[in-house]
Amino acid sequence: MGQRYPELFAAVGVHSGLACGAARDMGSAFSAMRGGGPVEAGEKVVPTIVFHGDRDTTVAPVNGESVIEQARAGTRSTAMTSEGVSPGGIAYTRTVHREADGRERLESWRVHGAGHAWSGGSAKGTYTLPAGPDASREMLRFFLSVAA
Question: How far is residue 35 CA from its own chain's centroid?
């Protein structure tokens, strides 16, 4: 949605999802979920943060990479990667893309060992990984940082 309507969206957060246009119907959606779909670069960089489990068998992790690639919109950036462990003991890799002017408008989190589940979600919910890094908190931090 952010790529189709950048005038309406200041930033985008995606958790375990597909890039815009990766699917056109139910058949292509299931195909894209398994192995990624054809994705065109966006026309404009829309600040985007992505979370994806590296053992997601519902939506293949390559889709998270496709979201970032589309959001880069063909601009040059330098990827800086760091690794960490959530307070709940779940390892992750965080990659931030820094543009030539120093802005950091793209960020991706790969949650190690996670399947198709919201990282840091409530234990009372379904499809959640309570011990993972808190995706909701990190998305809010990201949205506030790019709004400044």
Answer: 16
